[in-house]
Amino acid sequence: MPSTDPADGTALLVDTPHGPARVHLEVPAEPRALLLLGHGAGGGVSAPDLLATAAVATSLGIAVGLVEQPYRVAGRRAPAPARQLDAAWAAVVAHLRAGDLAGLPLITGGRSSGARVACRTAADVGAAAVLCLAFPLQPPRDRPTRLPELDGVDVPVLVVQGARDPFGLPPAGPQREVVVLPGDHSLRSDVAGLREAVGTWLGRVLPG
């Protein structure tokens, strides 16, 4: 598994326009694709759903990077503005794809806020597919739905959502599969179901 210890010296620091990001990277001997996953707004890369997803991907021969945004690397819990998150994410993708991982099919994703970043930047970074864990569809206090972020993605999308997620359930779409599992926004209640959904989808969207 990729390390989630911020003190781990093997983690990769990547310069971005908004400070260094940290990538916990695991690369098999002959990777068939690259999966990059971002964390939630107030959480980190050790969230159970992220670790379960990373484990499934590595078992399929996929290189996995768990990406910590610069604000988390700097020790802050309050998230940066969306434009900064997106710019930092794009810088990480560009750095990784300029090295030994160049040319691999790219899947981007994450949980909650990280899923939103992946959706907003999918076209710009050249993602072949997007994996969303606990997408926060409907913000509180009657603010506008975030469905346009999902609808703006024109490559295959998987959304794994808890049935009792207070942020609601995104609808399926022409290229968007939605898997509803028992539980809430944390996706802790059915890790086996999460693994099965992610593994099946990855096997379908990646070239043989």
Please describe what this structure looks like.
With 208 residues, the protein is an alpha/beta fold. It has one domain: Rossmann fold (3-Layer(aba) Sandwich). It is 31% helix and 21% strand. It is built from 6 helices and 8 strands; from the N terminus they run E-E-E-H-E-H-H-E-H-E-H-E-E-H. It has helices at 48-59, 70-73, 82-97, 113-125, 147-151, 191-205, and strands spanning 12-14, 21-26, 34-38, 63-68, 106-111, 129-133, 157-162, 176-181. Helix 1 packs across helix 6 and helix 3 (82-97) crosses helix 4 (113-125). Residues 32-169 form the KANL3/Tex30 alpha/beta hydrolase-like domain. Pfam families: Abhydrolase_11. It comes from Georgenia faecalis.
Keywords:
208 residues; alpha/beta; Rossmann fold; eight-stranded mixed β-sheet; 6 helices; globular; disordered N terminus
